[in-house]
Specification:
Length: about 375
């Protein structure tokens, strides 16, 4: 099923783990270089900017190929233009297979060709069938297939969006069930996706897809939250159910959505602190901030400037107490520097600070054998030698 050599994929995982150990200073730089030199690795781009550059280059290459084919075959396929779009998708498959066989993995060029596969096939399906359900179904299928075959991280996000869109389209446009249950369907879909990704990550044979499972877990957590967020539910209720919220009234089950809007982020934060899950902690803080924005969007309890001042004071107090509590902790949640996240900028800053604190004294050499008398042209014929 995988387009890449499994042994080299394992080497990529080993090299990534060695790099993490080197960043955390568990192994020296020489040992890290020795490990990577002995492993056969793919042609990849570790620099994100370089990878984005190659991705844009791949997009330009695909655009050039598409324009060339449209120029010569567009007039022939005037009424069947969707055939040409499917040909573009096939070119994306050929390009992805060619780059995989030549060892391009996480390079940027492969990203452009892999992502073009669901894009072109979804466009062709939309033109042919004029059905959003079919478009989302194709997006789901090709997203997960590209993720499995090319070990492509972003493809799992494409598949997840397609699956959610497919189910929502069935409920909204095909009356699969009452639209009132749409938020709860999204919530349970996110919960199911979260537990699936979490359980798959525990199994050893899926370690190659660890990045994809990490993205799937984050997508699931955001889906759970935004499915029951009060703002999202209210705006969709007004658009899909033609519900008009007048002053003094509210949407159905408003109390449930008010509660979940704040309770879910707090659960994320608490569970993340208990399990030491950094991704869930960051998403919990983000969703908590969005919950505050949601309430202030509809209800102005106080002027904005006063709310910002009180919020700043509250955050400062919480941060101060947390630092005092955790600054001496050595295990679990701690305020100690994270060895796995120490950047070169921080090291440079530390070196500059240490350098500025060191006082240097200029040492002048004293001549213990002075000459006496004598002028500029003399030989030093004074009273003493």
């Amino acid at each position: 099923m995988q387009a890449y050599n499994k042994e080299i994929l394992n080497n990529e995982v080993l090299a990534a783990q060695a790099k993490e150990l080197y960043k955390m200073k568990f192994i020296p730089k020489e040992q890290f270089k020795e490990i990577t030199s002995r492993l056969t690795l793919f042609n990849s781009s570790s620099n994100l900017l370089v990878r984005i550059g190659f991705f844009l280059l791949g997009c330009l290459l695909l655009s050039a190929i598409s324009g060339f084919l449209a120029l010569f075959f567009g007039s022939i396929l005037d009424r069947n233009f969707e055939v040409l779009v499917f040909v573009y998708g096939i070119i994306g498959v050929i390009g992805a297979e060619f780059l995989a066989r030549n060892g391009y993995f996480g390079h940027g060029l492969d990203d452009a060709f892999v992502l073009s596969i669901p894009l072109y096939f979804c466009i062709g399906t939309g033109i042919t069938t004029e059905s959003m359900s079919m478009v989302f179904a194709v997006m789901t299928l090709l997203g997960f297939v590209c993720c499995l075959r090319y070990v492509h991280t972003l493809s799992v996000l494409v598949g997840g969006v397609g699956f959610v869109g497919f189910v929502f389209d069935l409920i909204v446009n095909h009356a699969l069930m009452d639209k009132l249950f749409l938020p709860f369907v999204g919530f349970f879909m996110g919960g199911g996706l979260y537990f699936i990704s979490k359980n798959l990550k525990k199994k050893g044979r899926f370690y190659i897809y660890s990045n994809a499972l990490w993205v799937a877990k984050g997508f699931a957590l955001l889906l759970m939250y935004f499915s029951v967020n009060y703002m999202v539910v209210r705006e969709f209720s007004e658009d899909l159910m033609n519900l008009v919220v007048t002053p003094g009234n509210d949407i159905p089950l408003a109390f449930v959505f008010y509660t979940l809007t704040f309770l879910l982020p707090l659960f994320y934060i608490g569970y993340a602190l208990k399990t030491k899950d950094r991704l869930m902690l960051l998403l919990g803080l983000f969703t908590l901030g969005y919950s505050i924005f949601t309430i202030r969007f509809y209800y102005h309890l106080m002027p904005l400037e006063i709310a910002l001042i009180l919020g700043g004071i509250l955050l400062f107090g919480i941060s101060y107490l947390a630092i005092q509590k955790l600054k001496d902790a050595r295990q679990g949640i701690t305020f100690q520097p994270d060895r796995s996240n120490e950047s070169s900028f921080l090291l440079t800053a530390q070196a500059l600070i240490v350098t500025t604190q060191i006082q240097t004294k200029i040492v002048t050499s004293e001549d213990k054998m002075p000459f006496g008398g004598g002028g500029f042209s003399g030989g030093g014929s004074g009273g003493g030698y």
